[in-house]
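TA notes. Do not distribute before section.
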Amino acid sequence: MIDEAGEQLGVMTPLDALNLAKEKQLDLVEISPNAQPPVCRIMNYGKYIYQLKKKANVAKKNQKTIQVKEVKFRPKTDNHDYEFKKKNILRFLEEGDKVKASVSFRGREMAHKNIGRAMILRLIEDVAEKGVVEGHPKMEGNHMFVIFSNKK
């Protein structure tokens, strides 16, 4: 048995512990039910739950959520469009987000995967100063993609 100040009161019967908690107008909470004998504590349970929720809210507020932004290319993407999308990738990386750059192939373009791979390798070189590549370019179905994260 532990009281609200954290001092040990020794071993008691459940009835005695419950009466002691009622005298102090507090709750009897079982802390460790598997111990021999089980450990109980006298506390204000409502206040304890409130403090746990408050700690969880503070932890949630302090964490930063990282979004994965996607920028899509095609094998026939023009140079101006490439530069525009590259600037967007650099901006997303500066904001702290991850970026998934993908090249989509349609129909006969699947026979020329080397064009898409060359575009992704060029993008990796251009973004190298601000972003780090998480793995090699991968092919899933008719999409080749690579994921960039911010350089720390």
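Switch to the second chain here.
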Amino acid sequence: MRRLLLLLPLAIFLLLAVVLYRGLYLDPAELPSALIGKPLPVFDLPSVDDPQRRLTQADLKGPALVNVWATWCISCKVEHPVLTALSARGVTIYGINYKDERVAAQKWLKEFQNPYRLDVDDAQGTLGLDLGVYGAPETFLIDGAGIIRHKFVGVIDERVWQEQLAPLYAQLVDEAGQ
């Protein structure tokens, strides 16, 4: 019995070492979403551009990227020129301005250009919470029926677009027959 008690700390240490070693090979940007294969959550929020206009999930028509962003997000500023270029090339992008001030968001979009076809003002973060957002930037790909098909966490740069998101977006466009 005493010998078994002496081996217990060693067994716990080895188990912990195996778990930590496995963690070294996981991709921290790959956060699974329970919403893959499900429609965008139901929402009714104001537009960043016009607070009198209410936007709902029915307004976000796919195939499209749905980008969660904020003016306080340094990574969003890095990502923004790429989104602007994608929008200029015809990629449909909707924005969700997450836990931000409307005036700051309007100023940002005026200064840096607006790549978003529509931009939802999620000042309280309720839509972000329903989407399972951990922080900005996060981007969802939705299909023609508004079903979430993919989630990307982090900055979209040209490499990420070309290698990961463009093929998925093209597939959704093909499925929609556009």
